[in-house]
Amino acid sequence: MIEIAGTRYSLEDPMVMAALIGAGVVLLILVLLFLALRAANRSARMAEPLARQLAYLGQHVQQLGQGQEQLRGGLQHVSDTQANAQVQVIQTVEARLSAVQQQMNDRLADNAMKSARALAEMQERMKETLHGTSKQTATSLTQLQERLAAIDKAQDNITKLSGDVLSLQDILSNKQTRGAFGEIQLNDIVSKALPSDSYVLQATLSNGRRADCLIRLPNPPGPIVIDSKFPLEAYEALVGAGNDMELKAAVQMFRSTVRKHITDISTKYILDGETADGALMFLPSEAVYAELHAKFPELVQESFSKRVWIVSPTTCMATLNTMRAILKDARMREQAGAIRKELGLLHKDVERLGDRVANLDRHFGQAAKDISEIKISAEKAGRRAQRLDNFDFEELAPEDRANVVPLGKSEG
Fold first, then answer.
1. Which spans are transmembrane here (predicted)?
2. Can you name the residues that pair with 213 across neighbouring β-strands?
3. pTM given for the model
């Protein structure tokens, strides 16, 4: 940037660059003229001693007076020769100055043309660069707007998800609502995995206990109970422990809570002669299930010994699919007798159909024979009609003559 008379000009501006190049050309011409003038002055200084010598000779000529009149012609000749030489020197210098000036003008014109072409090419490249830059900028702005729109949409989703998480925390903070949440999740999984007539929600057992879900499996193993309550407070205390003391207390609390829950399920929902020899403890959280199996394997072993199987949403779905296969196999065994009876009836129907097809085939054979005989009779009737038509014009063939029946007699 340069500043002239309070106005700032950018060196990258094409007009400023053209002005600078023109000023440089003018400066170069001035320098060349200055050099030419210096050369002329140098020539003048070279001629100055000669002028002093002439003045000195003039003084001697005046002193010699009239006695040296005969030398005047020679001096005049010398003076003329010197003048001619000086004129020639001046003409030579002027010619050389003209030649140098012409060369400088040619070079300046050539440089000006080259500068103009370079400036035009530079302007073209700058236009192309600016066009490409503007296009890329427009594309980048479009992509940036799309990304900003996607970010805004994601932010809205995050805000909505945050609200859902807060509402979920509010639900899980209350035991009754947490139990309802577990029951709803269990109901959703069971309804997707099993037929509607194979399970009962909130079923009441003979001991008065209400089971969250009772799967009606055939004997063995018999109906099996699924309980959906889980120790969320103990797990949150375990995860949120800030020091060793809190961690130790949380571990003890989690262990005692899960052990009591396993014992309650074993005593309340496993009834001899009424339910299966085991029950399922459903944990609606994969995190609680993973923490239990990773850090408390003794509780898992204790649940096995008390015939309480701990399942998460994923393992519960796999278990229910196995139960579905068991139910399907049992129902197929129940229907095996009916299927066998229907197969016997189907076999009899097939035998009866074979007999009727055979009878129909015999009827078709008899009908074919009758049709063949009818065709023979029709051919004979046709030949007789032809003979009757040609009776007066042709003789009967010998074989036909033998077959002629006298009038009054009928053919047997």
1. 15-37
2. 201, 226
3. 0.41
